[in-house]
Amino acid sequence: MRELHVQEINEVSGAGLFSSLGAAVLGGVMGITSGLYKGGVGGGNTGGIVGAGIIAALVGMCVGGIVYGVQGALYGLVNDWDTTLQVFNNYSEQFFDFSQNVPK
């Protein structure tokens, strides 16, 4: 019997599937939070007639949350757990940096 490599073990045991699904969930959460903030700030900057900026911010948050959430989930599926976790950690560090109004 020969020794299996890590990639072979993941494929045989199905661990690669769970890693990809976990990364998709993590990427989706990251995308939703990023989309909510970026869409809200971008939509709210339109201003205009009284109340129009608030409505635009709400629409921007809804659309941004959906679009960025899907994009984040797809990013997690494609790039797997390690890369998605690294991007999530970088995003979280920027999220808690109060010198920036919106995470990059």
Structure description:
The protein is mostly helical. It has a domain at 54-88. 79% of the residues lie in helices and 0% in strands. The protein is built from 3 helices and no strands. Helix 2 packs across helix 3. The longest helix has 44 residues, at 52-95. The radius of gyration is 18 Å and the shape is elongated. The relative contact order is 0.17. The model has no long low-confidence stretch (mean pLDDT 85).
List descriptors.
104 residues; 3 helices; Colicin V synthesis protein
Tell me, briefly, the overall form: elongated
Query: Helix share of residues?
Result: over 70%
Radius of gyration: 18 Å
Give the percentage of residues in beta strands: under 5%
Low-confidence stretches: none
How many separate helices? 3
Largest sheet data: none
Instruction: List the helices and strands in order.
Output: HHH
What's the average pLDDT? 85
Distance between the termini: 50 Å
How many strands in all? 0
Main structural class = mainly alpha
Protein name: Colicin V synthesis protein
Transmembrane segments: 12-37, 49-70
Keywords: Membrane, Transmembrane, Transmembrane helix
